[in-house]
Design a protein that fits this description.
Length: about 170
């Protein structure tokens, strides 16, 4: 009789284990992959691809500073976090009234302003090059995908400003 109790207990344990593994596997299959931005890796990626003229003006520390400041700027817009619980990023995302968009011109202006504050002379073109290469790095690690199409106006109509027009 004890062997029957042992067999039932073993089957019960195996059944619970199969259920737990199956439930976990399904949950992981539905979850989105998480991309982690490694500042040192991003700096290496950008520095290796800088055009000669820009590389002459910016050293590795300058590039790393620009990338770090860009992350801080993206965080203030709700587009990046510094970990699981990031109240600044969450507040920025929650306060958004529409799609959260990072305008490159605003980012360039913010980085130039920060560089001036820190006493680092940078050319606006250098900042644009660094940001373009950073965007390439973000695509490479899967943090950024394809551009999102413009949303349709209420009622399913195309925007009136001509966006999305295919012809005359």
């Amino acid at each position: 009789m004890i062997w029957l109790f042992g067999a039932v207990a073993a089957l019960l344990v195996i059944g619970i284990a199969v259920f737990a593994v199956n439930a976990t596997t399904r949950g992981l299959a539905r979850s989105l992959p998480v991309s982690v931005y490694d500042l040192a890796e991003a700096t290496d990626f950008v520095c290796e691809r800088l055009p000669g003229e820009v590389a002459e003006r910016l050293d590795r520390d300058d590039v790393e500073s620009l990338l770090a400041w860009n992350l801080t700027w993206l965080r203030s817009r709700g587009l990046a976090t510094f970990g699981r619980v990031d109240l600044i990023a969450e507040d920025a995302a929650r306060d958004a009234t529409g799609p959260i968009v990072a305008d490159e011109d605003d980012a360039v202006d913010a980085l130039i302003e920060r560089a001036e504050y820190e006493g680092i002379p940078v050319d606006p073109v250098d900042v644009v090059v660094v940001l373009d290469l950073d965007a390439l790095y973000l695509r490479a690690i899967g943090a950024v995908g394809e551009a999102v199409p413009e949303p349709l106006e209420e009622g399913g109509n195309e925007p009136e400003d001509g966006a999305g027009d295919d012809g005359p």
